[in-house]
Amino acid sequence: MLAISLALLAGAGFGGSAIFARVGMQKLSPMPTILISVVVSAIPAMLLAVIFARGDIRAAPAAAFLWLVVLGAVNFLGGRTQNYQAINRIGASQASTILATSAVFATIFAMGIAGERPHFLIPLGTVGVVIGLAVSTGDSIRQGWATDRRALLGYVLAFGAAASYGGTNVLAKELTEDYGSPLMISGFSLLFGVFLLAPVAGRSTVDSLRRLGNERGTWAFAALSGFSSAVAVIALYYALQREDVVVVSPITAAYPLMVLLIARMFMSQLERITKQVVAGSFLTIFGIIVVIIGSTL
């Protein structure tokens, strides 16, 4: 049950991150938002790693840090960059619902690459996640094909982020098993994510912060997004250390429901929540409940 609780905490963190990013990107473009969020994520994660995982860091071979560079690239250049770009184009609720398919990608990768063999209820619940996705986004995707090229690109980016996050989960699982502390894995992957993003987004971030001047509220939301992501990443990696990817990933994918709730309550002018989106999200959650049941059998 600890792994399930950590997966739910990770989902809550990712949901909060999406909401804060959506608010911050009203005045700050996606790439500066991404870099600020990753920098803020890296600071507490690295501090915790240095304090509590010093032995694991010293014992890790050079190959471990090469794999952490790969993890940082897949997670942040691939995942977070596409995720925030998608949020900027189609909104946090729609992007988050599509990102629930990361559970599908993770299941495919875990079974095909890592050799995991889950109880039949787990793939069945994952199918429920896919059906929920289809219900919640079907109308919007059809309209995007017909009228809104910008929105269509947002859907493509969201699916790209989902695939990246699915791969991230499998890679993180393998690294925590091979090299120890999830704190070390999360801290250094975030640190390498900063190094990889800096050449791409560094200049635009500095220019954006200069233009904002004393308007701290905007970049503060980007920072809050990063802090929320740090909590999510650390909780996720601890969950993956304790449970299979095919169990953790669908549970973490529950966070679109929280995003929908917050968007409905506080962001009605930014987010359009339809009945189809709500129904699809509940189907997604139902699929996750089936996964949890399957994980206990």
Can you offer a commentary on this structure?
The chain has one domain (2-295). Helices cover 87% and strands 0% of the residues. The protein is built from 13 helices and no strands. The radius of gyration is 18 Å and the shape is globular. The relative contact order is 0.24. The mean pLDDT is 82.
Secondary structure elements and pairings:
Elements: H1 2-24, H2 30-52, H3 54-59, H4 62-90, H5 92-99, H6 102-114, H7 121-146, H8 149-179, H9 182-212, H10 216-242, H11 245-252, H12 255-266, H13 275-295
Helix pairs in contact: 1-10, 1-11, 1-12, 2-4, 2-9, 2-10, 4-5, 4-8, 4-9, 5-8, 5-12, 6-8, 6-11, 7-8, 7-13, 8-10, 9-10, 11-13
| Count of individual domains | 1
Structural class by SSE content: mainly alpha
Please report the distance between the alpha carbons of the first and last residues: 13 Å
Q: What does the largest sheet look like?
A: none
What is the number of helical segments per DSSP (H or I, 4+ residues)? 13
Low-pLDDT runs: none
Strand content: under 5%
Instruction: Give the number of DSSP strands.
Output: 0
Bulk shape: globular
Assign a percent range to the helix content: over 70%
In short:
The chain is mainly alpha-helical. The chain contains 13 helices and no strands.
Please name the defining characteristics of this protein.
single chain; 297 residues; mainly alpha; 13 helices; globular
